[in-house]
Amino acid sequence: MESQSLFVGARQNLDLALKHIAISEDAIEHLKHPKASLQVSIPVRMDDGSLQVFQGYRVRYDDTRGPAKGGVRYHPQVSLDEVTSLAFWMTFKCAVLDLPFGGGKGGITVNPKQLSRLELERLTRGYIDAIADFIGPDVDILAPDVYTNATIMGWMMDRYNIIQRKSCPAVVTGKPIALGGSAGRETATAMGAFFVMQTILPKFDRPPAETTVAIQGFGNAGSFLAEQIYRAGYRVVAVSDSKGGIYAPAGLDIPAIRQNKEAGRGMEALYCHGTVCNMADHQLITNEALLELPVDVLIPAALENQITPENADQIQAKLIFEVANGPITFEADRLLNQKGIYVLPDILTNAGGVTVSYFEWVQNRSGLYWSAAEVEQRLAERMTRETERIWQLAQSLDLSLRTAAYVHALDRLRAAIEVKGTRDYYAQAKA
Ligand SMILES: NC(=O)C1=CN([C@@H]2O[C@H](COP(=O)(O)OP(=O)(O)OC[C@H]3O[C@@H](n4cnc5c(N)ncnc54)[C@H](OP(=O)(O)O)[C@@H]3O)[C@@H](O)[C@H]2O)C=CC1
Ligand SMILES: O=C(O)CCC(=O)C(=O)O
């Protein structure tokens, strides 16, 4: 039976990968538990004068390979279980890309769409007040995730600097460029996924013009990726946001949809406003229906647990690129594998974001800033190299791409954990 806990499900992929790599019992035990978890209450004075207390979290899953790294999510469903799972995935993602980081993640249980801009700023500054002793440029570095953005990262950095009484830009990445952000961070998650697609699709003899794509989620990751693959000549036939989706078998006008989305319009208006609007050519669909469309490529780019044992059998795509973290449950993944569907796992596919975050951290610490072209070239090199390695590993060991990605990451994590030793000083004393 499917587990209720996201973290229990996340760890099942680790258990699977452990069967394919020689690794010490100590290292296994080490990797099964988060190093530190913090839960905080954040009191916020609301615009109407009332006081509201929000729950916030920061989990440092592992920092053997370097400071913990990972985004902060603002969403009504944020919980310690979810943040722990996201921090766990960050640990493996940073190892997949060979970044000198461990894994961390944060979140606040809130619907930010219901807050005014000033309430959002007070909440953000309150969160940093509450976790300031737990983070730092050499300890645990924040970044954007669902419903957080560059402006919020700027507030976080500013509050941290005020607490520290000095400038510490490297405590947060994904900042506005004017505050030390990196060129290319805003589009990095999408560009990283695009480079994974460009490496994988030729292996399936899939020229862009003959490849249909459906994308769930039209935020930072999904919307930039939709535009990038549209411009590369793929046929993007369906997109969606939290309110539902739109499907046009002949292909959607993605730049027009992005423009309208930025103007705050709903999915129907998105397509109709100022562009082709012929309902005979396209139809509004639910997020559930989008996942089951007859497309070549499916890209979940919103939230976890979208493909489960309940709908796995209805999935028609031949390839799934996981841009969201954890969109496929463990059991559903097994069913998709049985059906011969290739899944490019989250810990590889969406790693472009943290990779450019690493570049931002390096730039902040060196004081030397790179051009957009330089960032993109470095990102392309890393994403292509690690995708190719995971593909080769999957082929040579006859593994799914997800298990191969975990084995690839485990090889790097194991090396660091085993050479450093565990925290079991008693065992060392005995030896
Ligand atoms: N931002 C980053 O750098 C990275 C993000 N990711 C992952 O990518 C995913 C998306 O993040 P990101 O794009 O940054 O987030 P955003 O907040 O920018 O966008 C989220 C998008 O998902 C949509 N959405 C929300 N709930 C649902 C739902 N139930 N069904 C369908 N769509 C929904 C939102 O709709 P609406 O617009 O209506 O609110 C919005 O379009 C997450 O899993 C995140 O962890 C991974 C790596 C890096
Ligand atoms: O940019 C980062 O540091 C992390 C982004 C993130 O949260 C993720 O990859 O899930």
UniProtKB/TrEMBL annotation:
Keyword DNA repair: no
Superkingdom per UniProt: Bacteria
UniProt xrefs under CDD domains: NAD_bind_1_Glu_DH
Membrane found in the keyword field: no
Coiled coil (UniProt feature): none
Family matches, as SUPFAM superfamilies: Aminoacid dehydrogenase-like, N-terminal domain, NAD(P)-binding Rossmann-fold domains
Keyword terms, alphabetized: Oxidoreductase
Domain Glutamate/phenylalanine/leucine/valine/L-tryptophan dehydrogenase C-terminal: 182-421
Pfam families in the cross-refs: ELFV_dehydrog, ELFV_dehydrog_N
GO MF, one example: oxidoreductase activity
Entry's family note: Belongs to the Glu/Leu/Phe/Val dehydrogenases family.
Protein name in the entry: Glutamate dehydrogenase
